[in-house]
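Marked as duplicate of an earlier ticket. Keeping the data here for the record.
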Amino acid sequence: MKIRAIALNTFKEAIRDRILYLLLFFAALCIILSRILALLTIGDRAKIIMDVGLASLSLFGVLMAILIGTGLVYKEIDKRTLYTLLAKPIQRYQFLLGKYLGLLLTLFVMLVLMTLVFLVLILLHRYPIEGAFFLAILFVFVELCLITAVALLFSCFSTPILSTLFSLSFYLIGHLSWGLETLINKLPQGGIKTLARILYLFLPNLENFNFKTEVVHHLSIPPKIFLYSSLYGIFYTVFILALAVMVFRRRDFI
């Protein structure tokens, strides 16, 4: 009950944030402009619209998660409302999970709105919509769950500006870490290759949630890939949240 109350209050606060609607406007604009880009580009127009649209959903969803999530805890400390909350019979993990779930609910609503704009554009042009399209959007949300947890973790011990930089770095590293696997295959056997393998195992691989290529080019996706990506997202998110709770518990607010 306490977690739900904090989550609903966080949702009400976040949904009033102007930056959400600014990002929503630019996301809708990018999705609509994908039609113009398709007209100016040689190739399959449907593929270009689908590619740009899915990329817009992912990018602007991540920006919403980071820009709102990195200030969740800091704002409570800055306004000194956190002291009042913690003086009540509320555990710190309940406060943190409530904030997390409240932001997730906000992101879910924003993602639904962006998806509706995207669907209207697709239906107006009478492009076929396959089941893989909705699965791709589902995994966009799975990625947002992880990025939100990361933003919340950094907000527990840093300022919003630094937390934003850290979270964006996590996002960029997560989508570029696949290059490390290519490097590992080219390295000779030795200590450097072993170190690179260990680093690759611990670095996030957000490409596990990226199914844009498969959707755009109508490629089949084995069910075990979906299962692996789902489990990867769940376990990584739970790990980051557990880390955030541990950091938040150790922090002294007196």
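See parent ticket for discussion. The chain has one domain: 2-250.
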